[in-house]
Amino acid sequence: MPRIRGKTKTAEILTLEEAVKKHVKNGIQIAFSGFTGMNRNPFAFSWEVVRQGFKDLHSIDRHGSCCTWLLNAVNAIKIQETDWLGWGEMAGKIDLNMERNYKAGKMIIEDYAHGAMAFRFLAGAVGAPFMPYYAPLGSDLYNPKYDALGRAGLRDGKNPRIPKKKFIQMEDPFWGDGEVVLLPAARPNLAVLHVLQVGDKGTARWRGIGTIDKEIAFAADEVVVVAEEIVPEGELRKYPETNQVAYFTVDTIVECPWGAFPSAVPFCYDYDVPFLRSMDAASRNETDLKKWLDEWVFGPKNWEDFVVKLGTKRLLDLKADSVTGYSTRLLRGKKPAPRMKMALSVARSGY
Description:
Shape: globular
Number of strands: 14
Distance between the termini: 57 Å
CATH class of the domain at 12-255: Alpha Beta
CATH topology of the domain at 12-255: Glutaconate Coenzyme A-transferase
Largest sheet: 9 strands, mixed
Radius of gyration: 21 Å
Structural class: alpha/beta
Helix content: 25-40%
């Protein structure tokens, strides 16, 4: 049966703590926004998930992130469907928490390709059961022998979030163009997106790279939008072409300044390379990891206290330039990035 959407949702505004308590349950399938560990990770949300002690989560993502790194740090993820087993380019690609849990048999990893995962969320977004895709042909990612969820006996139809097959390869019935791979739709219980601005009715906007965040919002049953600021809905609707998330997909709005730290929110703040590297360093030793968690996750009274602990200078250094969208105070190699004096196209062409 096709998935039929009901009536338009009415978003409510909650605190970070309230939103996590309402929407997260042990064992749910959850998708996070952003790009790797560098861009618009809803880190504050996963931080609060850890603090509230939820477990056995099924993460389904285009790639790893600071969110999955943190959840894996406390072994909160039971299944991770992904297309990239890292979490942050600047810190070290492999999520060592995930690697440790996987080798200990504490979690299942199901691997797809980048494009395949994007097509799965596209199928979920448009309400289709599957999407055809040619690129997987010939890859062992689509060899039944390496179907991790199948080997674990979880493709028996009992879990409505896990498709009965990882893929189906068949002859193109329309054009006779050879074999094609059918990929099952991604249908998460919950999508959590961090954005630059959200209207008080739920319309949301970000700037910079978006990857498949819009598709994630349409594919999920419930959507939480965490934003740097809540603005009047009418202001966003003045320029509808600059918005990405439709208000009628959103269940809950959370205003949480610095809620994507240590990843970046373009045109608001940059990513914090030293902090990312400190996370990676801590994950290389379980004793150091516990100390890091005690200091940065369980130590602060709330997220506001976490931000205060970061310190004023760090936050000011991360603040983004309003023209380029990133910080000009941080070192890029041996010196900070230069301030932009004119558009690159003008500099190159002369007019």
